[in-house]
Amino acid sequence: MSLLVSTRPSLSFRLNFNLLRRPTNLPLSSASLTPKPPPLPTPPLHILRRAPYSSPCTPRAASTAATAYSILRDSGAAAAILAGAYALVSAFDFLTRRNLIEQSLSRKLVHILSGLFFMVSWPIFSTTTEARYFACLVPLVNCLRLVIHGLSLASDEGLIKSVTREGKPEELLRGPLYYVLILILCALIFWRESPVGVISLAMMCGGDGIADIIGRRFGFLKIPYNQQKSWAGSISMFIFGFLISIGMLQYYSVLGYLHLDWVQTVQKVALVSLVATVVESLPTTEILRTLASE
Ligand SMILES: Nc1ccn([C@@H]2O[C@H](COP(=O)(O)OP(=O)(O)OP(=O)(O)O)[C@@H](O)[C@H]2O)c(=O)n1
Ligand SMILES: C/C(=C\CO)CCC[C@H](C)CCC[C@H](C)CCCC(C)C
Predict the structure, then answer these.
(1) ipTM score of the complex?
(2) Pocket of ligand 1 (CB under 6 A)
(3) How much distance in Å is there from the Cα of 208 to the middle of ligand 1?
(4) C-beta of residue 48 within 8 angstroms of C-beta of residue 13
(5) Contact assessment for residue 28 and residue 43, using Cβ atoms and an 8 Å cutoff
(6) Which of 67, 75, 91, 114 is most buried, most CB within 10 Å of its CB?
(7) C-alpha angle 9-14-20 in degrees, rounded to nearest 5
């Protein structure tokens, strides 16, 4: 005997009751007297069988629903990350205003954390091709914010205090603006599909940021060709840039976005970290200043 148990109109399961039944071919009294009852028939392997699925949706309706879901998910993710970016800058503004950390440290911590958190947040977005455009809205809104305040069209002391070196609005149009533009480019071009964007951002945010923090504190021994940079800063850039890149690649591999040969990856990331460290240590500002004055 089988019974149809229906939970939802579209899903139904056939429950086979053979297993639960006691043998009925014997009267109760004789069953108790008979030493050995006949063996039960072999139980079927599947007691729960799924009835054929019949969707009430047409393929077109299902695809519209999926698109609507992706748009909703991507807009929600962009809004949440935008709020996170605002909260991060506000938190560092709070810390600098209370003199709990120096302005230069605040700026570098925002530099390290905002890009890395932004990159870590990418898996929240859907798998559609448009997802990266939604993600780019976050640095784009911050880019507009930097331009508006950098040109002094509006004033935001908190933003200026937490991301500039000397507290001048026009500083927003240099380091911070280039930074968000690079975030936009990496998200648009490489997104979650290429290790190039992941490594570039890990070096720019993590490596370069840590070089400053360590170099300012322990950079007594300067690099021969650049008296502004130190061995301590450059060595930390190499080590942390390498470790953060590997960590981020591992994160994207575990989530299934990247499939890497780790021996080759470690070698290549070490080489990229070395090249980035050497480039960062060059006296580019001095060279550009000399060229501009000629
Ligand atoms: N390899 C490095 C890099 C930085 N620093 C220290 O960090 C400071 C800031 O260097 P830099 O990264 O060039 O940052 P900023 O000049 O603040 O400007 P930006 O972050 O916009 O590049 C330097 O003066 C230096 O004390 C260092 O010792 N060694
Ligand atoms: C100080 C900075 C660079 C100079 O070296 C960094 C400026 C950061 C921007 C003002 C804010 C950028 C926010 C990111 C686009 C998103 C961060 C999201 C995350 C979840 C916190």
Answers:
(1) 0.94
(2) 165, 175, 208, 211-212, 215-216, 219, 228-230, 233-234, 237, 280-281
(3) 8
(4) yes
(5) no
(6) 114
(7) 135
Over its length of 294 residues, how does the chain's per-residue pLDDT go in tens digits?
A: 343 333 343 333 333 434 333 334 434 344 444 455 566 666 555 555 666 666 667 888 998 999 999 999 999 999 999 999 999 999 999 999 999 999 899 999 999 999 999 999 999 999 999 999 999 999 999 999 999 999 999 989 989 988 998 889 999 999 999 999 999 999 999 999 999 999 999 999 999 999 999 999 999 999 999 999 999 999 999 999 999 999 999 999 999 999 999 999 999 999 999 999 999 999 988 788 888 777
For the chain, percent helix, then strand, then coil, each to nearest 5? 65, 5, 25
What is the Å distance from ligand 1's center to 88 Cα?
Answer: 22
Rounded to two decimals, the pTM is 0.81
